[in-house]
Amino acid sequence: MGADRPSTSSNHVVKVMISGQQARTSMQPPGIPDDEADRLIALYRLNLLDTAPEESFDRVTRLAARALHVPFLLVSLIDEHRQWFKSSVGLDAKETSREVSFCGHVVFNRRALVVPDATRDPRFAGNPLVSGPPHIRAYAGVPLFTRDDQPIGTLCAIDTLVRDFTEDEVDSLRDHAGIVEELIQARDASLLALGTLKYVAERERLFRATFEDASFGIAHLDLNGVLRRMNRLGCALLGQPRVNLQAHCLFDLIHPDDAQRNQALIAKAISGEISRYHIDLRTRRQDGLYQPIKLDVSIHQDLAPRPDYLLVSIAAAPPPA
Fold this sequence. Notes:
Elements (H helix, E strand, L loop, with lengths): L35 H10 L9 H14 L3 E7 L3 E8 L5 E3 L5 H7 L3 E3 L12 H4 L6 E8 L5 E9 L7 H46 L4 E5 L5 E4 L1 H7 L3 H4 L10 H16 L4 E9 L5 E11 L8 E8 L5
Helix pairs in contact: 2-5
């Protein structure tokens, strides 16, 4: 049996040169799924096409080829016009046209395909991959799905001898395909996380630019009045350098005669009795003198169900008459 099959050692691979125009009229090209646009979006999102070989994928194809005793084992991705091989055993080709692909039928039907003798199957008898190199006779392929259940390709086993792949062999192929899916989905999750981090970083950059350049003073305080952040204008209106304010209680700067009135309003806001308040009071500058300012204070929360921080806008107030 082995004497009739091309060698698949590391120094011998079968060369395949195929174009869609070579297909004979007796061949049936694979159908196009109704949700092809969504399928292609899921595929392109992975950024797998035309990438360099990766040992994690190649290890699976080697193991599957040995388990099924086949000369060719492929991780095939189906894009709009071609099938491209992320990993392969036995072939030097990186792609063929989609029109001649066996794997395109698997993607279209979303289920495993077993072809015991391609020369006797009307879908494939006229296929140039059957009549010419690599002279496919038997084929077994199972679909590979993304996390959103889109079939983007296959793990497929190919033999140059007629054979009927057993149910156990197809199950083994499915198990190996599951490992490939995990690799693909881990990559997808990593890209999604990276995209999220970039989005958050950009939002933070825009927030900081808007926060710092606002035309009024802005401060974020915790519920005890300790400063989380304040923009440049807020520091200027309080007459204090940022280093004097950071991680200190802003309420400690309030004139003692105004502090009790402010504390009463803070308590009402935290309890939910009011959602915001306005107050005119005096705060101590770096030189020790007090100056009048206007505060607009509102309660905010991030993800917690309880109040999380105080948003304070600061404006200059006219001096008392």
